[in-house]
Design a protein that fits this description.
two-stranded antiparallel sheet; 6 strands; about 200 residues; 5 helices; alpha+beta; binds zinc ion
Length: about 200
C-alpha cells in the first residue's frame, strides 16, 4: 500500500526516553534532567506550568513540561523561523512530589509529538551540559569515589566529542549532594510527623 496524502502526519514517540523511576529533590532537578533527555533526543523542553503549594486547598506543587512546538500555531511568525513554529504538539510531562516524601516523580502524560524532530538540533542556547548518559556515568563514578578529573577523562574516553569539563562534573556532584540532603530532610520531616 502506498502512503498517499499521509506525509503531513508525522508522529514521534518519545515516551520511553522520558519514562523514569528516578526521584528528584526539586522541580529544578526535574527540569535539568528533562532538558538533558530532551537534548539527547532533539526535543526542546519548555515549562508549561509551574505551581507552588500555597496553602489553598487543592493546589499542590506541580511542574508541567512541554515541547517548544506546543501551543497554537502563530501565523505572525516569520517564515524564516520554521524551526521554532508551534504546531500544537501535545507532548506533556508532569512532575509532582511523591506521597511517600521520597522526592519528585515524573510521569509522561503524552509522549508522542505531532511533528518530526530536527536532524540538526542545536539544543538550548545555554551553557554546555552533560547528556543523560554522562549524568548517569558521573553519578555512578562519584558513588565509587572516583576523583572528578578522572571522571572527565573517563567521559572523554567514551566520547571524544563530549563537552564535559571539570566544572560540569563538580556542578553535577554538587546537585547530587543537594538531592541527597533534600531526601534526607524529607525523611526526617516524615519521622518527626510520625513522632508527633
Ligand atoms: Zn513536540
Amino acid at each position: 500500500m502506498a502512503q498517499i496524502g499521509n506525509t503531513s502526519q508525522i508522529l514521534v514517540n518519545t515516551t520511553d526516553v522520558f519514562t523514569t523511576d528516578q526521584k528528584f529533590a526539586t522541580p529544578d532537578a526535574v527540569l535539568t534532567w528533562a532538558r538533558d533527555v530532551g537534548d539527547a533526543n532533539k526535543v526542546n523542553i519548555i515549562i508549561t506550568r509551574s505551581d507552588k503549594k500555597n496553602g489553598i486547598r487543592g493546589r499542590n506543587d506541580k511542574l508541567v513540561l512541554g515541547c517548544d512546538k506546543g501551543g497554537k500555531y502563530d501565523s505572525s511568525q516569520s517564515s524564516t523561523t520554521t524551526a521554532s513554529k508551534k504546531c500544537n504538539c501535545p507532548f506533556k510531562i508532569r512532575a509532582a512530589p511523591s506521597t511517600d516524601g521520597s522526592g519528585w516523580k515524573v510521569q509522561v502524560i503524552h509522549g508522542v509529538h505531532n511533528h518530526g524532530l530536527p536532524d540538526q538540533y542545536h539544543g538550548h542556547p545555554r551553557k554546555a551540559r552533560l547528556t543523560a548518559d554522562e549524568n548517569k556515568r558521573v553519578q555512578d563514578l562519584t558513588k565509587r569515589k572516583v576523583a572528578p578529573r578522572h571522571i572527565v577523562l573517563d567521559l572523554k574516553d567514551q566520547n571524544p566529542e563530549s563537552v564535559v569539563d571539570a566544572t560540569l562534573v563538580y556542578r553535577k556532584r554538587h546537585m547530587m549532594q543537594i538531592q541527597e540532603r533534600g531526601s534526607r530532610t524529607e525523611l526526617q520531616h516524615l519521622l518527626q510527623l510520625l513522632d508527633d
